[in-house]
Amino acid sequence: MSFFARFAQNRGALVGLVILLAIVLMAILAPLLYPDSPWRMVQRPFLPPLELEGFPLGTDTMGRDVAAGLMHGAWVSLLIGLVSTAVALLIGVPLGAVAGYYGGLIDDALMRFTEFFQTIPNFALAIVLVAIMQPSVVSIVLAIAIVSWPPVARLVRAEFMSLRHREYVEAARLVGQTHRTIILRQILPNTLSPIIVLASLMVATAILLESALSFLGLGDPNVMSWGYMIGAARTVIRQAWWLSFFPGVAILLTVLALNLVGEGLDDALNPKLARERS
Amino acid sequence: MLYARLIAMRLLKAVVVLFLIVIFNFVLIQLAPGDPAAILAGEAGATDEEFLRQLRERFGLDQPMYVQLWRYVSGIATLDFGWSYRQGMPVLDLILARLPATLLLTGTAFVLSLALGIVLGSMAAARVKRPSGSIIMALALVFYATPLFWVALMAVVLFSVYLGWLPAYGMYTVGAGLSGLALVLDVAKHLVLPATTLALFFMAIYTRMTRASMLEASQQDFVKTARAKGLSPRVIQRRHVLRNALLPIITLAGLQAGQMVGGAILTETVFAWPGIGRLMFEALQQRDYNLLLGIFFFSAALVIVFNILTDLVYRLTDPRIKEAA
Amino acid sequence: MNDDTPVLSIRGLTLALPEGADRDCAVEAVSYDVARGEIMCVVGESGSGKSMAANAVMGLLPKGVRATAGEVLFDGQDLLRLSEKQHRRLRGLRIGMIFQEPMTALNPLMRVGAQIAEVFEAHGKFTSKERQARALALLEEVGIPQPDRAIRAYPFQLSGGQRQRVMIAMALALEPELLIADEPTTALDVTTQAQILALIRDLQRRRGMAVMFITHDFGVVAEIASRVCVMRHGRVVELGSAAEVLRQPRHEYTRALLEAIPSNVIPAARGGDRQQPLLEVNRLSKTFRSRGGLFKPAREVLALDDVSFTLAPGETVGIVGESGSGKSTLGRCVVRLERPDSGSLRLAGTDLSALRGDALRRERHRVQMIFQDPYASLNPRHRVGYAIAQGPMANGVPRARAMRQAEELLELVGLGAVAVDRYPHEFSGGQRQRIGIARALALNPQLIVADEAVSALDVSIQAQVLELLEELKQKLSLSLLFITHDLRVAAQICDTIIVMQNGRIVEQGTAQEVFLRPTEAYTKQLLDAIPGRAHEAALA
């Protein structure tokens, strides 16, 4: 069975994929449909949804178009989710690989380091980092990456530890392959499936983290994001619930879709597990 | 005796971690753009040169780096977290005043989410492939994917604004002057929304964990042995599957403590719950970095204490570790 | 019901596998009886469906497997038509069962006594005090040392053999008429295996119960069976009394299986010049240290204790011993996957024990290894040709030439050059082991270490791989260090035998000396514990 056929067997994953594609489309179309800055005031404030043609989701406290903000926010959410996950992988994979492959003191030292980062409450750490580095896309990406690499390192380490004593790895040592070749050619390719699955879930968590930071007012002041929209409308929730409602639904759908896709990837990449689970 | 030694070792480890966090805080202040004095002052007197000069002297910012570090570390070792210029109070007093509210909120949410999560998770595990099981898991996934602060806001809209059932803000009715049982009930009423919204996300996590752990445990050989004895499915689920499935959940629940602190920051912000999470939000808004770092340190300490507790529970539950001791 | 009625009667049983399995039926039209007071051995290789009928009897069929035809008669009722609840009342009470893996078959969080008492509880017998008393009596009956302490123990505090005794105590608690034993000794050492077999035979005689004994091992069959049912691909190929089947097997498959049991026909020692040994192992020692935690003191296991021997060019030296004897550590030290703590290891003059890092890597091609697990020894993501060629490539041979060599080697081990472009999962266990041999040969090593190289294979495949090794030995005059727990296999291929126990060499000599005139008590004990010895002696 092909990879996609296995993926498609999980109906939730297909739904997730469709939602995700729609959101990607939103992000791509945002500059075309709403070429103006989403920060521009275009109508009277507090315009409820569906009241005025051209403003299907109404306007916010400053008269900005909610629909425009939503579309531009999609771009920011996806960008920060993907980039911060990539950075977290760049930290976590090499660390975990070295710790798991060499073991011993190197492993001890690296794992204490990882544990330290896992003990610190990660959202609080992200807040402190962004607040002190000053909010910007770069500082947000860095903060999210710094709080989310430890699970990657632990996963990769566990995989390497179980694979390094696998007989084919020992055979590779015996024929005289170098550590580098063994790590890159023998072990790493066999750890990719769980890393891919974890990465898809990490993008989802990163998007949640970003929205929570923006909600607290730690978003990049130059980009419109869903979390910021909810945070800005928090104080007027009694008068205009829709200002918080729509961006929240957008976050929920994106994170949900990513989780569903992650589960589908898991089924497709680990067919044996999927069969046992169902 | 051995437990005393274990606790001693864990506390030692905790002290090392906290020491590292202090160093980390110190480095952050140094790395931050701008004048460290201004950061410590919460930029309160950014324009007042005389004030900043006093601060530099007080914190020894004109001294070499190692002296500064020593002052900072020894200050925190004597529980001196500095002064919040914005609030005009010592940081420690501010935090201690807010701590009980946070403990009440997170404690309630933790118990609620763990209990519900284990019940729902075992139900879902027993109902694999049945619609009821799938519904539980779908709900768990939705709650897992929902931003906490948004659920909190929507709960306010629905239960306070629209239905008017529950108070939306604060910990007790201001100016009511209640005492005794009436006060307890009043606090409980205020607690319902924040605790429930905070619990939902963690309930989703525990539900998923419990189900996965139960399904894994039910694949074990000893379950087949139990069936070969002629035990009823109910006894097998409870005595053999659930008991073995709960052990990993204890450990994982401990690891969620850090997440719980993050959740508390968001829920307290929305519900104006007077805990350290809300305090952190206030510190953020006022750029009161000294207070911010103090809260950060405290929240890490809370997580460490919680981890030690779950570790002890785990060791008391698993005979393989207990008997080895 | 008179005494002639069998306890269990399986008639035309067909069990369908779920869609997508590698065949339609787990078992097809299977019929056999288990009579009162007999031990019925159901024999077959893995995948023969030998355990499936037993699962149907217990009502413990895996998900997706269902009975489509036939009946299973027990005490006049068809077990296939029982409801789950009715079936449950029989389990443990009238039919007991023990499993293969004693390490995982007991609940790790419950005391042994409580787990035995559960059997009584499941069927509502006795008060809780009586249950404990009976559990104690049962532990005594199955021969657990210090039963009054064992009853309060957790499973992790018992050895494998002791746990299997606990399983037996549980299965026999309510004196069932039928005991089903599913490979109960496969995971145990030979000496423990012999004890457990004796216990089962003894209990069976004393209680006069019927036993359905499932095994892959004809040695065990010869030891214990009254009657035998041989299965292959889900069908019964031969059925008869133990004496008939073992002495005059009618079916060709049974004959093949019986011949595949390496017999005690020991070849005369060959081998070359002892004056100039290829490998000189001198006073080798190795200690494993588990780092101590807070509660665990650091533990030290002396895996190799002052081991010395030599291996002549062209000779096959067999290292035999039970698990924990240090035989695998010895092999891993020789190929330098482990570093010995002290002693020397000279291969044609070079001391391998002293080498490290790159110097070691450059010498590695001289000693190669054939691994135990054919499923773990090949990287699932590499094509077979590349798997073989990467050795020469790592040692500087150009890719094209290395791949040509790989084709020749695959030809040599009987797989054909077309195999180069295929992935490991397209091959069976025996074929993969041939690939592993080709990989070991690719570097033209001076010495090959084979660590339990045939242990994971079915007996008929085992014989073929051993034959291939023998052939290659002749053709290429290989020097072989052959590590195995199976004395029958060692007898077949080795010129010299070294017996190890607790990290020390107990006895060494030519195969004929060690097997026919053992001098040490431990060697004799090992030889006596080989299942089926009595049968073979009777045949001789």
Radius of gyration of chain A: 22 Å
Radius of gyration of chain B: 24 Å
In CATH's first tier, which class of the largest domain in chain B applies?
Mainly Alpha
Helix and strand succession of chain A? HHHHHHHHHHH
Let me know the number of strands of chain A: 0
Q: How many discrete structural domains of chain A?
A: 1
Count of helices of chain A?
A: 11
Task: Enumerate the spans of chain B where pLDDT stays under 50 for 5 or more consecutive residues.
Answer: none
CATH architecture verdict of the largest domain in chain B: Orthogonal Bundle
Order of helices and strands of chain B: HHHHEEHHHHHHHHHH
Oligomer: heterotrimer
Question: In the CATH hierarchy, what is the superfamily of the largest domain in chain B?
Answer: MetI-like
Number of domains of chain B: 2
The span between the termini of chain B is 10 Å
CATH class of chain A: Mainly Alpha
Total count of helical runs of at least 4 residues of chain B: 14
Which range does the strand content of chain B fall in? under 5%
Could you give the count of β-strands of chain B? 2
Question: Can you describe this structure?
Answer:
Chain A contains eleven helices and no strands. With 278 residues, chain A is mostly helical. Chain A has one domain (3-277): MetI-like fold, CATH 1.10.3720. In chain A, α2 (11-33) packs across α3 (66-102), α2 (11-33) crosses α10 (242-269) and α5 (122-133) crosses α6 (137-164). The model of chain A is unreliable at 273-278 (pLDDT under 50). In chain B, 78% of the residues lie in helices and 1% in strands. A two-stranded antiparallel sheet of chain B has the order 1-2. Chain B is globular and about 85 Å long. The mean pLDDT of chain B is 85. Chain C has 540 residues and is of the alpha/beta class. Chain C has a six-stranded mixed β-sheet. A six-stranded mixed β-sheet of chain C has the order 16-17-18-13-19-20, with helices on both faces. Chain C has a four-stranded antiparallel β-sheet with strand order 2-1-4-5. At the A-B interface, α4, α5, α8, α9 and α10 of A face α1, α6, α7, α11 and α12 of B.
In short:
The complex is a heterotrimer of chains A (278), B (325) and C (540). Chain A is mainly α.
Task: Name its key features.
heterotrimer; A: 278 residues; mainly alpha; MetI-like fold; 11 helices; elongated; disordered C terminus; B: 325 residues; 2 domains; two-stranded antiparallel sheet; 2 strands; 78% helix; 1% strand
